Amino acid sequence: MTEAKFIAKNEKKWKALEAFNRRVVKGGIGRLQPEDIKEFAHLFRLASHNLAYSKTHFPQSHVVPYLNRVVGVTHNYFYVREGRSTSDIKGYFVHTFPHAVRETWRFWAIATAFFMLGLVFAWLYVAADPARLHDIMPAGMVSDFSPYEAHDFGDGSVQWEYSLMAAFITTNNIMVTFNAIVGGLLAGFGTILILVYNGLIVGALFGFFQRTGADMIVAYSLVLPHGVIELMAIFLAGGCGLMLAKGLLLPGDYTRKQSLITQARKTAQLIPGIVAMLVVAGIIEGYFTPLPVSAGIKLVFAGLTLVGLVAYFTKGIRTT
User: Domain total for the chain?
Assistant: First the structure.
């Protein structure tokens, strides 16, 4: 291919890449729509290949420094992480994070299904016979919740320390969140195991409390105000783990390494938001959950939290 044909064939796409660069300068990459980001990345890869080709076949051409400049500018947007300004942080939570959640909904929806599978099974299993709690939870965990033997379960006389239950579930969920992400590197099996197992633990606890006469409204009111956000963070983390697994198992047109890197970048867009959700959940648990208000008020708060999350993730935050 001659230099003239090479330029004629690709110049329009180079100009399109430059146009994207100008848009990012004005509004930030977080303002781009999903289809725009995909096109931006495609044009960047194409220009990178064109740069390598021109260096080999037309090393003295003006095309080389031109593409070097365009590709270099674009590279900074995709790979360079500079100090975050206040506007960058705002842009992340206003646009990037909710957008990333919408883009990856299939992954965290599957993660949610695995968790709920374990929860429902364990709830029904233990509610049928509270002594079965020992079949799911390690003895050390069981002893943390009750000094009673198995034959005492279910007589309605046990008084439960609900704050201990809430603290246990919260601490457990934080560990689950991060282990679920890393578990994706085990071809997804680690993530799935963590989600199902922890669904089993939560389901077993609630099945046990229901069967042994605990006040379930009070139990819900001490878990759900912060648990709504906390559980969503777990589901998103599970989705991250499944994305990493996809990168390893289903590379598509990429090499396995390239595919994993691509999925890791998508995961990286979610992690700061997941951490923030855990922090917010911790604040709610520390300052709102212990308040001496009725269980009904706490459950209304939990419901409003759920509505707020749905609105945030489906529409983002509207700014002028």
Answer: 2
- Are 272 and 301 found together in one domain? yes
- Residue 1's alpha-carbon distances to 9, 35, 45, 180, in angstroms, are 10, 31, 20, 50
Both 166 and 109 in a single domain? Answer: yes
Q: List C-alpha distances in Å: 305 to 232, 299, 301, 309, 310.
A: 11, 10, 6, 6, 9
Q: Does the residue 90 lie in any domain?
A: no
Name the residue range of residue 194's domain: 101-315
Quickly list H helices, the chain: 3-27, 34-57, 63-79, 86-91, 97-103, 105-128, 133-136, 139-145, 162-182, 189-211, 216-249, 256-287, 295-315
Flag whether 230 is in a domain: yes
Under-50 pLDDT residues of the chain = 82, 147-158, 160, 319-320
**Residue 55 structure tokens:** 């260096």
> Given this model, what pLDDT does residue 316 score?
62
Plot region of 28 (φ>0 → left; ψ -120 to 50 → alpha; else → beta): left
**Verdict on whether the full-model pTM lies above 0.90:** no
Position 242 scores a pLDDT of 97
Contact status, residue 203 vs residue 123, Cβ threshold 8 Å = yes
The whole-number pLDDT of residue 149 equals 40
Q: Say if residue 270 is in the same domain as residue 163.
A: yes
Taking the alpha carbons at both ends of the chain, their separation in whole angstroms is 49
Looking at the fold, whether 174 and 140 belong to one and the same domain comes out as yes
Instruction: Let me know if residue 263 belongs to a domain.
Output: yes
Q: For 187-198, how does the pLDDT look when each residue is reduced to its tens digit (9 = 90+)? A: 999 999 999 998
Spatial distance between the Cα atoms of 18 and 32, rounded to a whole number of angstroms: 15
Cα separations in angstroms, 168 against 96, 116, 145, 155, 289: 32, 19, 10, 24, 14
Digit-coded pLDDT (tens) for 303-319: 999 999 999 998 765 54
Decide if 95 is inside a domain.
no
